[in-house]
Amino acid sequence: MKDGLSLMKIPLANKMMAYKRYRGFKLTPISILIVLNFLLLIATTISPELIFSLGLQPARFLQRPWTIVTSLFIHSGLWHVITNMLALYFFGRYLSGLIRESKLLIVYFCGGIAGSVLFLLLAPPYSIAIGASGAVFALGGALTVMRPKLRVFVFPIPVPLPLWAAVIGGFLILSFFPGIAWQAHLGGLVVGLIAGYFFRKKEHIFF
What we know:
Structural class: mainly alpha
Shape: globular
Number of strands: 2
Mean pLDDT: 86
CATH architecture: Up-down Bundle
Number of helices: 9
Low-confidence stretches: 1-10, 15-23
CATH topology: Rhomboid-like fold
Order of helices and strands: HHHHHHHEEHH
CATH superfamily: Rhomboid-like
Helix content: 55-70%
């Protein structure tokens, strides 16, 4: 019986190794999102007027309804897109190990769209919202509820912080910066926290 178990483990281990090798070379939803954001940064650098065509502006939303989604892929510069994409990569990689990638995309886009809706309702009519921050906050919020004790490093703080403190603290600090669409951050964060609650509840029932 012992020999039989060991023989069964060998092909299983080989399958797991093959799966890991395959995963390393395929495009994931997270990598596709990152590539799209960088490509659109290049496009808006070449043609800055695209920011006004694809960014979300409450006063012109009825003429440009697509901007409720396209604004999630537009950034104001290299630093803006790098910070958002780093957060997307780390939050997304960890969260995709807890939930299916299809659910991760649902949280991402629902959080981003909820942030856009809140921006439409609360922001000055001629302001423009761009960036994936609301969608990223949704992933961070979901992960905060599912793994609140996870510790992360936040530059320039030299010691690891609990994830919940990093996400909630990051939201509060960023809300005081001028020119920040805190409405989008808030909408994404709320969606993420709600999604994380349901995912964690289902996780507990399953186990």
